[in-house]
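Example A, followed by Example B.
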Amino acid sequence: MKKNRPGTLVTVMAPPERRTALSAIVFRETTTLGVRYHDEERDVLDREIVTVTTAWGPVPVKVARLGGVVTNAAPEFEACVVLARARRRAGQDIQAAAMKAWLDRA
């Protein structure tokens, strides 16, 4: 940090309307004398959930599109964990089966 002193960087991501309240918390709970902020914007892809069938059960797959063209597909992690525990399988087995089902769909 300044003059080669050690320091800690704290990053807070929140909606702009929460800035004042969150800055007050940072001032109250730390020794800082200033808070920097930057407004950010984000582009997101269109998404939908498609359910595929695996040998261990159905798995929701999140499908992302750009201009109507599929750019990415990924099994929902938590759903894979729940199914893996219920079927006593490794989570990655469920994820792999879901991706195979997605790629093999008609």
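Example B, a separate protein, is given below in the same form.
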Amino acid sequence: MINLKVNIDNVLDFVHLEEIRSYTDEITKHQTSIKNKTGKGSKFLGWTTLASDISNFLLESIEADARRIKEIAEVFVVVGIGGSYLGARAVIEALGHHFYEMLEKKEHPVILFAGQNMSEDYLSDLLDILDKKDYAISVISKSGTTTEPAITFRILKNHLEKKYGKENAKERIIAITDKDKGALKELANKEGYKTYVVPDDVGGRYSVLTPVGLLPIAIAGFNIRNILKGAKKMQIFNNENPSCPENPIAVYASTRNALYNNNKTTEILASFQPGLTYFTEWWKQLFGESEGKENKGIFPAGVNFTTDLHSLGQYIQEGLRNIFETVISVDNPKKEIRIPKDELNLDKLNYLSGKRINEINHNAELGTILAHVDGGVPNIKISVPEINEETLGELIYFFEMSCAISGYILGVNPFDQPGVEAYKTKMFALLGKTDSEK
């Protein structure tokens, strides 16, 4: 039985249930085409069975490398962009201590991220830290020529070799790349780096359950087997229950498309847990790159409440009515804090004394949903009992499959990203890249 639930009660004042259920046959058709790998982009459907197909040998290798890195490094730098870092960061920040890098005693390396931007100041600040810390890195790229991570890796490789010597440096570099081709694979073979494979049939934004995500998550000290367990449970449930009324994947995909057809063109993913901020960033890439094609698609935006209620809350409440919200609701936090009584009561908060912060947070969540619905914003609620490895695995598979089905409903290929190349062409021309270097 899966833990995740979807509630669409706060959508039904905006879209009739019959309209949502009208997608049942289409979703069943798309579920079948995904399972049989017959739809658009079918050569990139390897992610659908990663959780059930991954070998114990691969998991043991990842876990062994995690133990090895823990022994030699205080810091582990993940060099990648897009799906090469967002999935790992989403899981690590959701599961980890909010201020882990500030703790005096650390059981596992601090995970830092690089190659996801081209800010000179960011990289300079990173090097300041790496000058003083023992570190290792993973570089993630199928080709090895993606500009941002390639530049960063060149700099960090140089830094590592100067700090530890060439022979010792190579023991601190793990390349996650194509199995047999590309610049990074060629370099890894030449230098003798440990390597893991990005499967040919898995695109970057769907790769969190490959070594791309699993290695840094394991190094951060989390149980990757339980993440895969959660994803596998969702995979099995989806395969056994493809129709709308029983399946949260089908309910979510059909509801968001029904809203889109009623001029709700922006989806705001909201959470009342700051640890899910980067999960939202992962979700934004997943849906943005998958659906935003052919002048179609729901625009994916994200907020973290209650923080953003004091910034974007006004727009959501009273702005242009082309938006709907999807809220990830977490029943139970990891820890407990109660509000103390104060004799002076100058802040007038004694009526809350003895209550848990979580109770107040949940009432803020409920109050926000009710206010936004009253303000003309439909709301989809996705509930999980708590944030742990298993529920995150469920959420990952839930959103990945929902995204694939939604893309097919739109009539686009949810597994390519042709528009991403447009800025690169202009940038290379401005930098004077020659034809021989392309």
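On Example B: The chain has a mean pLDDT of 94.
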